[in-house]
Amino acid sequence: MRVVVCRELGPLDGVVVEDRDEPVPGPGQVLVDVKAAGVNYVDGLICQGRYQLKPPVPFVPGGEIAGVVRAVGEGVDGVRPGERVLAMTGFGAFAESVVLPALAVVAVPATLSFAQAAGFVQSYCTAWFTLARRAQVAEGECVLVLGAGGGVGLASVDVAVALGARVVAAASSKEKLALATAMGAGAVVDYETQDLKVTAREVSGGGVDVVVDPVGGRHSEPALRALGPFGRFCVLGFASGPIASVPLNQVLLNNRTVIGVDWGAWAMRNGAENRAMLGDLLAMAGAGRLHPAEPAARPLGDAAAVMTELLDRRIAGKVVLVP
Ligand SMILES: NC(=O)c1ccc[n+]([C@@H]2O[C@H](COP(=O)([O-])OP(=O)(O)OC[C@H]3O[C@@H](n4cnc5c(N)ncnc54)[C@H](OP(=O)(O)O)[C@@H]3O)[C@@H](O)[C@H]2O)c1
After folding, report:
1. For the segment 59-70, what is each residue's pLDDT rounded down to a tens digit?
2. Measured from the CA of 40, which atom of ligand 1 is nearest?
């Protein structure tokens, strides 16, 4: 079978496609034919050696898949061949097939395509954990989402709308803002050409209640300043590179709160709770209350190119690799 291999941590041109033997499921495991593998910003960082987690090389990158169970190992009775499933794989997703613990796979609702399902877990769990659990967004509140045309950003728009919030989407291009509008954002800010603080305060009617910030850098401070009384600023990541330093008087003013969000670490320590949360989110998607956008599909051989484009900010929405 064909797999994507990162031979060395460093430039992404060291990521290549190789042939490997088919894996065989052992006791308690399942073999899944991958129909789509979600590409996340973090995959490129890991392959470049710029992430806190540095796997031994060579390794197969990719953290989430959707596909069809081909075979099950001894002692597996909850999962059957032919089932449509998705899973977080840790590593190993950019491959034609993967072997996983049976407990790691989750049934995919019939309403989701393989591509939608493959891009769902990381973006939607992060968005829900941020908005519902950490910021506890209430109906009628106003949420400002930075990087709103990216994976986590677009999911945050969808989740905020599902929670009954009004959304102001901020992004760098017409294409990304159009995606956020289609997802339900009521107002948009192009933070490359408009003043983020002034515009967000204007369109929200005086100040937003919650900021979702997976971008960091120069956008964080104006977003913090756009918060109204008792506003909550959620720190998710630093896709733009620099980690912003903000003046603490801006937290004191208006009784604001800064909230750290680390869904990945929480999910690892709270497996059962995370699984229940994912089940609820998939049920919401199955019932049409969440609307993951259909990702663009690219071949497995484009893995390095897609990770490069993501890191270069050239992708609107999500991309999956289709083996
Ligand atoms: N805290 C958590 O639990 C958690 C969980 C998952 C992901 N994350 C983090 O969230 C961030 C976003 O992840 P994602 O999967 O949504 O990524 P993504 O799809 O690539 O979106 C990131 C967005 O950041 C913006 N951006 C601004 N400057 C950028 C630059 N120099 N390079 C790249 N992007 C830039 C881009 O939007 P514009 O062009 O519109 O500015 C882009 O759409 C990452 O830092 C990731 O590590 C955090």
Report:
1. 999 999 999 999
2. 15
